């Protein structure tokens, strides 16, 4: 049967608060209330929006970024923690699915994280950007395959990637193969210049076409006053303008509403979910248009950790040793040692 649902979504483009610890969170909560007042069932915010994207790392050399890096640590988000609790409560109050980009602090490391809150306030997914880009590698650690997951939400099946992860076709295919209906894209915005906005548009429209899903993309915005505080050098400030492309894309690759490329605002659009089948009837890249016997993806979706505790297979035998095998194992090792001695004597 055709999906008759209509889902109203909001793509938010606002400026962070680069000065106060809770200022950006306050702006997130206010934007959620604004979007809810317009009937939005899903709200999407920019990449690492809370407390702010590390713009300083793009325009300053590493040796000069220590103070700002530490300040980012001090204001970063723990999951769960006060920030996620506040957003969860607002999501529950508004009955709204929310996708928020945060700088996540996990002990001594920061990560570029995307958090999906369901309409009841529960956290359905916390994923980390697989590979930070260029200057970002001085700021964030790497994510793992456990985050390449599509989750069932109150508005449908939702998957998410951050920024240049969209240039990794296998990462995108991992979400496509899980039949995402609404793809969340997040970029920092106010970065690189107009060419970045053009690249974002090409990327998200192509993903919508290829996956046969909707794409809701949010980019951030910096005011001229904020840009001036980040860098006193006008030449460097040029790298902190442009690059905004907040947009909502249909499965046919077209803008549902005009994109937002300058200033603050919230895009609102109604997603006709029946368009997914309309697109996939012609081209389902993980279904009738796929050739899995020729081309397929292997995904290691295990969460990584610096230490694994427990019993591990003995590489010599390929199995976990059992206490009952100790006697035989000791005898075998003794025999191996005797053979080694005999061989050395023979030489």
Automatic annotation (TrEMBL):
Xref: InterPro entries: C-N_Hydrolase, C-N_Hydrolase_sf, Nitrilase, Nitrilase/CN_hydratase_CS, Nitrilases_CHs
Record domain CN hydrolase: where: 7-273
Disordered, as annotated region: 308-336
Domain of life: Bacteria
TM region positions: none
Signal peptide interval: none
Annotated family: Belongs to the carbon-nitrogen hydrolase superfamily. Nitrilase family.
NCBIfam families: nitrile_sll0784
Record's protein name: Nit6803 family nitrilase
Species this protein is from: Flaviflagellibacter deserti
